[in-house]
Amino acid sequence: MSEFRLVCFSSEILYGNDVIVDFINPNKEFDKNLLSTLIIGPNGTGKSRLLSTICEVFRSLERLKNETSNLQNDPFKAEFYLSYYYNENYFEVEQRNNNYKFKCNSKIIEPRDLWLPQKVLAVSFMVNDKFLYNKTEFGEDKIYEYLGVRHTSNATFVNTVVRRIIDNIIELSVNNEFIINLKSILEFLKLDNKIRIYFGAGKRKKTVFNKKINEKEIENLLEKISERSDYRSDGLKKYSREDVYEIVEFLNNRILHSKNIKRDNGSSLYYDIDLDSAENNIAINKDYDVLNKLIKLGYIQYPTLHIGRESSFDFELASSGEKQFLFTMINILSKIEHGSIVLIDEPEISLHPNWQINYINYLKSIFSHYRSCHFIIATHSHFMISDLEPNSSSIVSLKIKNNSVRAQLHDEDTFGWSVDDILYNIFDVFTTRNLYIAREIDSFLAKISKGVENKALKKELSKLIEIRRHLKENDPLRDVLNMIISRVDDND
């Protein structure tokens, strides 16, 4: 089985060549669970840009490996350094002054000998995400997949989310492993194990499910369409007689006699997705092609998705958190392969704190069959940090110091840490009644009482000064800190 682990990355377009972001300690032994790396940092530290730049570099390397571009005209011009493990092999790629250097286990290799992740998945639920859309001047990538909400490179449509969910459910519903994972997703959302997909009659074809239709009617409609010049009619102009026959056969016979197709008041039909047996979903999987043809012809509307919690409701009425989680997880399941890198930008958006706390654990559970993958997640959520399993996770923090960004790979085991602990020790956020601030002050006072040299105390004083800066003017702790800082300064 292919196993991918991103070790480190740097690029001049991010933080300069001297700032290397370490994602894992290559000497640390991780267990066999899915590996996750969480990237944290305040706004302005470039978390999203870091993820998108990693995607761009791997796209560039794929083209170099497959010789669809060369070292001179490669579109990614910025200098960078990248290292990763693929199985037991350690790969390094460096680009300086438009010169590439490729290494495998410290030996120089050709770009065609690079081993790349099976898939590079870019995941976001933000309409303004930083990831590139799939299509480029070089054609679509084989390893890169954009799994965001944009429908084109710069546009988002209202029905994009539900259409992609439905497309993926129907396509993958014949796979038993997908069905098992889909049930886990519904369990996380506390939804019933029921999914129903509706196809309503078109606005001008209200009787489409109640009357016989003949081939001539379809042919006349296609003839009218052929006279149009808009891009949406181009695909319909290619319909053959076989397509016409398939449409007529479906409307006149199949929807009447198939046990898998249910009618609803004569104005719509629906399919229930069987979450116990993938074999029972073969019908909708096969029918979806002709259903899409009917949608394009205007005979039926875009499908709607119905889920349930005691009673069924339209997915459009679900909370934004439910939509985000379902969209994200199903999208990843539709494209992931063993040995992939999955980059998720701010998954906490719209998620309740309880869901944020459990997010990583559920991620590892849903994708437990893909332990050879590396999930890299940019987040602002301290809740996601609190229950990280130390033997299958890492934390990278980005901080701004002296007007430049610095990256740190944390060695701390945060499993079971309190919110205050994480805010103070990982996020560098000071709360006025944080237990760990009190301990910091106690520790400093103890050193003073033990007669620790002033020079040594001076080195640690900056942390207390920073704590004081975040306290309110009338906070009693300020008086304590003022006395300590004054005491050290007076003895300097």
Q: Mind sketching the topology for me?
A:
Blueprint: E1 4-11, E2 21-22, E3 35-40, H1 47-65, E4 80-86, E5 89-96, E6 99-104, E7 107-108, E8 120-124, E9 144-147, H2 160-172, H3 176-188, E10 195-200, H4 215-226, H5 241-257, E11 262-264, E12 268-273, H6 282-297, E13 304-309, E14 311-314, H7 320-335, E15 341-345, H8 353-366, E16 374-378, E17 393-401, E18 404-410, H9 419-425, H10 435-449, H11 454-469, H12 476-490
Parallel strand pairs: 3-16, 3-17, 8-9, 8-15, 15-16
Antiparallel strand pairs: 1-2, 1-4, 4-5, 5-6, 6-7, 10-12, 10-13, 11-12, 13-14, 17-18
Could you walk me through the main structural features you see in this protein, from its secondary elements to its overall organization?
The chain has helices spanning 47-65, 160-172, 176-188, 215-226, 241-257, 282-297, 320-335, 353-366, 419-425, 435-449, 454-469, 476-490; strands spanning 4-11, 21-22, 35-40, 80-86, 89-96, 99-104, 107-108, 120-124, 144-147, 195-200, 262-264, 268-273, 304-309, 311-314, 341-345, 374-378, 393-401, 404-410. The protein has 492 residues and is of the alpha/beta class. The chain has 3 domains: 4-156 and 337-416, Rossmann fold (3-Layer(aba) Sandwich), CATH 3.40.50; 160-317, no CATH class; 435-490, no CATH class. The strands form 3 sheets. The protein has a 7-stranded mixed β-sheet, sandwiched between helices. A 6-stranded antiparallel β-sheet has the order 2-1-4-5-6-7, with no helix packed on it. It has a 5-stranded antiparallel β-sheet with strand order 11-12-10-13-14, covered by helices on one side. A hairpin with a 1-residue loop joins strand 13 (304-309) and strand 14 (311-314). The longest helix is centred in the N-terminal third of the chain and has 19 residues, at 47-65. The model has no long low-confidence stretch (mean pLDDT 85).
